[in-house]
Design goal:
The protein has 212 residues and is α+β, with helices and mostly antiparallel strands. It has two helices and 13 strands; from the N terminus they run ββαβββαββββββββ. A hairpin with a 2-residue loop joins strand 1 and strand 2.
Length: 212
């Protein structure tokens, strides 16, 4: 039923402090084609937390830097630890789209040097967390949702309390900048669903500026 009313959704929804949702802004088909190309060179994998726990969400990276995690901690690396090779080049489409979307949200000059590619299977989730491994927190994070819908949890600058629940549909783009850049956020357990382009999965592109 939600898809029937997609055309009635607003062009943007402001959640305050630099948190902005752009419903249906992304061309999901074009982005998914580029994701497939990246994953042929750097396949999805399940990383391990510093505590030794296997992450339920599969992921990969593209760009000059990629986000990795193992028993040594969370960090950005120029090379894929599984292959030893540099991460695939970030597609120009990705860079241009992320920069233009950031500018729409009021953050001009954004040039991402890392793009995380996450794949959510039914039943997987992302616990509330801050993205704080980047050198300069003045730059926003641009996040694109593709495939099966998900429920985004937006907290404040503390993990606890009652979050705002935001339904993310295929093609939605969420920007965290300004004060909201440090807000805790997460994804509730993904419901079973089916999308014509991704099947039962949800893909998420997260664009970041990791270096100064």
């Amino acid at each position: 039923m939600e898809d029937l009313f997609a055309a009635l959704r607003p062009e943007r929804e402001d959640y305050g402090d630099g948190a902005v949702l752009f419903p249906g802004l992304a061309d999901g088909t074009a982005l998914l084609r580029k994701i497939k190309t990246v994953l042929e060179r750097a396949p999805l994998r399940h990383l391990t937390t510093p505590g030794g726990h296997r992450m339920s969400v599969a992921m990969s990276n593209c760009g000059p830097l990629g986000w990795v995690s193992d028993r040594r901690g969370y960090r950005y690396s120029p090379s894929d630890p599984e292959s030893g090779e540099q991460w695939p080049v970030m597609p120009e489409l990705f860079k241009v789209f992320a920069a233009e979307t950031a500018a729409r949200a009021g953050f001009s000059g954004f040039e991402p040097d890392a793009c995380l590619i996450n794949q959510y299977a039914p039943g997987t989730s992302l616990s509330p967390h801050q993205d704080a491994d980047e050198c300069d927190m003045r730059w926003p994070i641009v996040s694109v949702s593709l495939g099966v819908p998900a429920t985004y949890q937006l907290y404040g600058d503390k993990r606890g309390g009652k979050p705002k629940l935001i339904r993310l549909m295929h093609g939605d783009v969420f920007v965290l900048g300004g004060k909201a850049r440090r807000f805790f956020h997460g994804i509730k357990k993904l419901e079973t669903g089916d999308h014509p382009e991704t099947g039962c999965y949800r893909y998420n592109l997260t664009f970041r500026r990791a270096r100064p």
